[in-house]
Amino acid sequence: MLQSSVAPVPTDWRRVFEEAYQGRHTHAFKSGRSIPMGSQDLWIVCRGIVQLGTLFPSGDEAVLGFVYPAMPFGLPLTQLEPYEAVALSDVVLMRLNQVELESSPLLAQGVLQQS
Predict the structure, then answer these.
(1) Do the domain assignments include residue 55?
(2) CA distance 78 to 41
(3) CA 81 – CA 79 distance, rounded (Å)
(4) Residue 13, pLDDT score
(5) pLDDT confidence of residue 105
(6) Block means of pLDDT (10 residues each) for the chain, length 115 residues?
(7) How far apart (Å, rounded) are the C-alpha atoms in residues 3 and 115?
(8) How far apart are CA 14 and CA 114, in angstroms?
(9) Considering the entire predicted model, what is its pTM?
(10) Residue 90 lies in a domain
């Protein structure tokens, strides 16, 4: 019996996001602009880089990380408060809400694997 030595092809989540939401409205933000964070909103970066951060009670700011194309961010993915997102470059983002995510298992899997 022959066994296949072909490894499973990794899913291109950026392509999955683009196909699932082809023709969907995107949101552009200029470098330095804050990105609004709704309690049910998830953002997917289509182009550019977003910086995530938080503030300590002392007023000190902390950079949490950077989000690149095909990566999600948003309040449903964190327990930090406050949680801020700022466009580090000109960015194009796609906004999803939790209801949309819950209605698409493939999309939910992609978001969870990319976060």
Answers:
(1) yes
(2) 12
(3) 7
(4) 59
(5) 63
(6) 45 61 80 94 92 92 92 88 94 84 66 58
(7) 34
(8) 10
(9) 0.73
(10) no
**C-alpha span between 91 and 48 (Å, rounded):** 4
Pinpoint the alpha helices (H) of the chain: 13-20, 98-102, 105-114
DSSP structure class, residue 66 = E
81 falls within a domain: no
d(CA 16, CA 20): 6
Provide the residue range defining the domain that includes 38. 20-63
Q: How distant, in Å, are the alpha carbons of 47, 63, 94, 104 from that of 23?
A: 16, 33, 11, 17
| C-alpha–C-alpha distance, residues 72 and 54, integer Å | 17
What is the full DSSP assignment across 27-56?
EEE-TTPBPP--TTEEEEEEES-EEEEEE-
As a whole number of Å, the CA-based R_g of the chain is 16
| Domain count along the chain | 1
For residue 94, is it within any domain?
no
Supply the pLDDT for residue 12: 62
